[in-house]
Amino acid sequence: MSNNRTSNINETLPQFYPPLYDLKHKVGRGGLSSATLKKAQKVIDNNDVDFLKVAAPYMVIFEEGLALAKKNDTKSHEELIENILFSAMQLKANGGLFHYPIVTQVAIKLLYFLERLHTLNAHALEVVIAFEASIKLIFKKQLSGDIQKNGEEIIRELESACVRFFEKYPENIHPHFRDRENKVETKKTK
Amino acid sequence: MAYNFKDVTILIVDDNYPMLSLLKAMLATFGVGTIITAADGDIAFNKFCKYKPDIVISDWMMKPKDGVDLARSIRTNKASPNPYVPFILMTGFSEEHRVIVARDVGITEFLLKPFNSTDLYKRIVAIVETPRQFVRSENFFGPDRRRRSADDFKGERKRKDDVAQPVTPQELKDAHKRVDAAKKAQSVKNSDDVVLEDVVVHIDMVERDNE
Fold first, then answer.
1. Would you tell me which residues 26-65 of chain A have a C-beta closer than 8 angstroms to some C-beta of chain B?
2. What is the ipTM metric for this complex?
3. How many domains does chain A have?
4. CB contact under 8 A, A44 and B26
5. Once rounded to an integer, what is the mean pLDDT over residues B112-124?
6. What chain A residue is nearest to B19 in terms of C-alpha separation?
7. In a domain, A31, yes or no
8. What is the per-residue DSSP string for B79-105?
């Protein structure tokens, strides 16, 4: 069906295909009611999935990644943080869906730290270890549901650790981010 | 009157079973008639060829074949029954450089995890109400990576025509002339392609506006 669409320009140049409205014809108009959306939201809110079980394999990968980073200095930064980054992303993605929004918030800070990091040196590892310890503590104390005061404190402390690290080692910000932030700064000054 | 998804088939792909179940239950609540599931990109591509779904919703990080590879197969594999299918990529990554990677293989929409029912619904509405034109160039095939700005957009604009506003017949005529001249000159290469692409998109948008 869609393969029969014709281009509006000859083949030596970029070709453009007008959008299809097949789906629109199938589903009609009017959207979904707020009642339906609320019902769908309840599917998330009332799910009884045990997040600790969901998170367990990611924590194993996290720990393996950390162990590798602690003893290995021959691999590239990307290789060393790959497992940690993957686990952080999964914890961030799943925590909030399975009643652990605090894990999502902590993992967001960890992702932010890892993405900006240029080299996973000993000092950076200490920060990552602090994240690991915090997540383990959250699981041990089963801090599910809305983020409470002690949860907010954990997040704040971890964020401060990241800020302190990059203030102390500005050369360890990945050049990609340094360039981007410089551009933003220049724009603001203008 | 409301959307009726009874005749719609959606393929959802995730290697995390609880996540897959959750998404399936949410789509069922939306009234989706047929929901097909797959646990990785390879299985998903086979099911895609078999069931020809109307929408694909896939996680990014899966082994052995991830969501980006799946999108690439759907867009470019000769066996793909519908390379134009809307593709929603779910991911926990939000950094710009990662999003660009996915965008460049032809993702239609991103769904950032964790999400709620409204986030999911908004992506589906975008696909239904504002399907995007497709572009085939030397290095890319997929939905146009430049979106048309909404009329109420208040931010900075890159070009004068970066807004959905009426274009005069003279402007349309001029744009056609510029394309013809470029084609005749046969010198449209590398960086010039970008300029020409802009002109062609412009004409395409204008013609659709005028219809």
1. 26-33, 36-41, 43-44, 47, 49, 54
2. 0.86
3. 1
4. yes
5. 96
6. A94
7. no
8. T-S-TT--EEEEES---HHHHHHHHTT
